[in-house]
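REQUEST FORM: STRUCTURE PREDICTION
Request ID: SP-0412
Submitted by: Lab K.M.
Chain count: 1
Length (residues): 221
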Amino acid sequence: MSYDFLSLMLTAALMTLGLAVCSLILGLFLSLIFAVLEANRFVGKPAAILIALLRGLPEILVVLLVYFGSTELVEMLTGEYIEFGAFGCGVFALSLIFAAYASQTLRGAIQAIPKGQWESGAALGLSKSYTFIHIVMPQVWRHALPGLSNQWLVLLKDTALVSLIGVDDLMRQADLINTNTHQPFTWYGIAALIYLSVTLISQVGIRKLELRFTRFERGVK
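STATUS: Completed
RESULT:
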């Protein structure tokens, strides 16, 4: 087993992890926007249709549409041909997929907050936006954590989809090395072990977050 190939696999693993983390950060931001828009009486229905569309399409199709469609869309609007990078398109596509599901988790968590929290903020003379950001949202994350944790684990595995648009992630690197060595079981097995290791480490981190929230709740009570 070549150490050069192992080095390439580790580098690709870092690329996969970076892809997942970037998608998580942007996805959380988009999911919050989706949840707020869906609750709005003016744009709630169009937002709900968009979210249903993203949830209904195969995930690989979303990745391909973003990668190939973004260039065509910009060319239609501006007349300029701009080719977007595979990594950026992959992050945006995975963020959309993550946000479509996470927005429903956040929406349910927001609805789980007692209305008395909003009324208390109004009684103190606080604006709705201030109450939402500083009073409601800290409690929302606690309720949403189990669902968001599961979606993060799904996101980690979905990063393999972007190998089809040329991102040098773990799956693409394993495929390229297999082409040279003709040892599919070895290199796909190593890729599987790396994915499993990241997943197990993530689960440990998630468990610590849950314990921290539990202790915070007991301290408040």
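NOTES: The chain is about 85% helix and 0% strand.
Reviewed by: T.R.
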